[in-house]
Design brief:
- This protein is α/β, with parallel strands linked by helices.
- The chain contains 19 helices and 15 strands.
- Strands 1-6-5-2-3-4 form a six-stranded mixed beta sheet, with helices on both faces.
- Helix 12 runs antiparallel to helix 15, helix 12 packs across helix 16 and helix 15 runs antiparallel to helix 16.
- The radius of gyration is 24 Å and the shape is globular.
Amino acid sequence: MNQALQTLRDRGFFAQCTDVDALSSLMDRESVRFYVGIDPTGSSLHIGHLVPLYAMAHLAKAGHRPVALVGGGTARIGDPSGKTEMRRMLTVEQIDANVEAIRKQIEAFLSSTGVTPTVVNNADWLGELNYIEFLRDIGRHFSVNRMLTFEAYRMRMETGLSFIEFNYQLLQSYDFLELYRHHAVKLQIGGDDQWGNIVAGVDLTRRVESAEVYGLTFPLVTRADGRKMGKTEAGAIFLDSSLVSPYEMFQYWRNVPDADVEKFLLTYTFLPVEECRELGARTDAGINEAKERLALEATAIIHGRQAAEEARDAARAAFGAGGASDVDAIPSVTIPAGELAAGIGVLDLFARTSLCSSRSEARRLVQQGGARVNDRQVTDADAVIDAGWAEGDELLLRAGKKRYFRVVVG
């Protein structure tokens, strides 16, 4: 097998391929241009989006040429793949703003790995399509019966599939055709939930251009504890530091289940395969060291080495392994001294931090015994936190064993 493909397989980025032998032979002979598509359904990527970008970086480092497609056109419809209901429709203005934000994040991530991609927006060609001509020239190549055999559509048939979503596969397939025509793209990669769309694009490009092109997917990343990848009680782990701080991202990786350490090191870092496996095989104190290494490396790729090291030092300080100044990297909010002196309900206080998304979530935390203020457990949901709880000019809030937030008294 081609070495670049072997790297993907070794690191867990390989589920299905339309013709692995032919693709391997092609990649041995030439530098292949390939693409990944991401729809801008929000203003920031989260760590689940990073899987195809890591795969892109591995292929680029092996000498192949990456194209990152931001779906400013397809986001106007919404991909039904993996969804049980129709996506919320965004305005064109919202999508355009998301496109620009995500383009910058893609370029920043890949730049941090030494990769410079070509970035395109499929609104540039989808936005000007003539519907009648599109149906005549492109739609005639698609079998409705075959489309309904793909998992994405079969799942939605039970809850309802809108006609606008049914068109999504045609548009994504047309993306592959356009990228082949104008950028000589011969490979699309993506998560395994995209298999039907990728196969359809391969088939369309072969039919229209008589071209040999390929698709490759990788397994969807899941956590051993059953949680959705990149999700916490407080929400998704976004790349945007204004939404999720480097400290919070560090803590997410530091607290993954032991069983996931090797898989996440292989997927979310560029450490050698052998080192990832050695770290993941550790036990007891050794596995905690491995988790800290995972957290440091994964956070450094997104936020830079300095921010990652500051987050590590803050985490050590919070657990009593560092100096007091190290806690400065823990996310914080400032409240007026007068407000604290008057007293703030514990539920309101926790709900104003990233530890809890609402008062009801804060209530559950208190009732379950997981809420602490400056290491004092709070068990009364009606408790009022005032200046008597402060140590110096701050409160250190904790949810559970490992999630911290600072409240600075201004």
